Amino acid sequence: METIISPSNKTVKHIKSLYQKKNRDSYREIIIEGLKNINEAISSEWKIETIVFSETVYRSEDFDFLKNSCVLKKIKTIIVSEKLFNDICDTENSQGILAVLKIPDKSSFGAVTADDGFDLGNHRKIVILDSLQDPGNMGTVIRTADAFGADMVIVSEGCVDVYNPKTLRAAMGSIFHVPVYKSYDIEKLIGELKGLGIKILAAHLNGENFEDKDFIGNVGDTSSIAVIIGNEANGIRDSIAAAADRLIKIPMPGKAESLNASVAAGILMYEIFLSKT
Amino acid sequence: METIISPSNKTVKHIKSLYQKKNRDSYREIIIEGLKNINEAISSEWKIETIVFSETVYRSEDFDFLKNSCVLKKIKTIIVSEKLFNDICDTENSQGILAVLKIPDKSSFGAVTADDGFDLGNHRKIVILDSLQDPGNMGTVIRTADAFGADMVIVSEGCVDVYNPKTLRAAMGSIFHVPVYKSYDIEKLIGELKGLGIKILAAHLNGENFEDKDFIGNVGDTSSIAVIIGNEANGIRDSIAAAADRLIKIPMPGKAESLNASVAAGILMYEIFLSKT
Prior knowledge:
Chain A is an alpha/beta fold. Chain A folds into two domains: 100 residues, CATH 3.30.1330.30; 164 residues, Alpha/beta knot, CATH 3.40.1280. Chain A contains twelve helices and twelve strands. In chain A, strands 6-9-8-7-11-10-12 form a seven-stranded parallel sheet, with helices on both faces. In chain A, strands 1-4-3-5-2 form a five-stranded mixed sheet. In chain A, helix 7 packs parallel to helix 8 and helix 7 packs parallel to helix 12. The interface between A and B is large, with 37 and 37 residues.
């Protein structure tokens, strides 16, 4: 197979354009990077359009299994020079491999609107992200939600794009395990969740100290809980905090005033979701 | 004060050079970004050499307090155009402010060698990082260690540079609260810590499940504990794992195979350090 070296190659230009949200939205395609993510995508229901190998990676025997999968599943593959790969993908220390996926028509990244009356079914461990801005944090939260068996992640309109390549990279394939929904009206959604008997806990610097599992017991029915995590700098919006059942705070005896949002989310999910699995 | 616009200005060139480790090492200077970090530095024992403002930030009244502090403490300030600021500092969404600090002769980032026989004193809650590679993760771990009252962080030789601007950014000023030491021989150091009666717990995918605080009780004396966190992809080196008292694993009932290193560190510190404060 020929190695592409020209940045003006049509396929290369198209792929590069997907690093911008407006193009992801219009083409309904996303980019995932790295072997782990690609392997997860291959075993998922998502359709892989193209896999891009850097020349060195394509020649390495370590990737023979993946190359065979591509042939077997008739996935289009292209090889590009190292220089061009680094030009396409702005990741430092990239693994020299990325894939373009088609967003499924019925994507788990579907929009949840309050009017959808969406079926929660058995989704009883929910993570809600309010205006989370950092793509790495969002991906890390999705990965942690997956590890701790959360049933879904709901992101507010003000959150960073779930399809952001940095989000997908940090999610390490968990995006293919945990459904992520977008809500255009978190306050209304919280009302609906409460109506379904789901307790809403919100991480908040003015919250009650969250010291041990007894706190969870105090919440009442612990089988259905949603945890809300807010923006890195500003926390949860007041209207959302007001809608929650309880505001909780992770005790911090040291000097730091707050925790990184994905660390706080991790500790809360660990305490809350693990106490009932 | 005149606004600098030329990238070939001598001071600007010098500051820009500090984004490279070799220059930080040779000049013994580091860069910190953002108001939060700079405020923490001002109230610390570190010496601020220069503060760089972008033009807009300098003109904003929000920064009057800081500008007055600079005058009062005779800190050199320079103003650069927006374009030049973004050229110096490769951060997306920078706050338009950064500072150059002199590394103190007796820096808390001092080197710990096994031969130093360094005095642990009351340092009884210790975090050890083995070959942690991501600067964001390292900064986040330092921030969390600060929040949960850890007494020190020790980094192995194979870790990313503590002075990396991304590490310092993620640490959100906690670098000025928690001493960070570098060890050139972690195995030997672990031996020394054990000799001092400190229990060594290591996060390991083959470890025992770390389910609740009873586990901590089982460790024995819970007043002196060191937690080791390993490399993002490969975990803790075998020789280090072999030297630990116990290998522990955070239970993950979901599909993700592992947690982000800074999330795992956060959960372990939360359980271990908070159970005895």
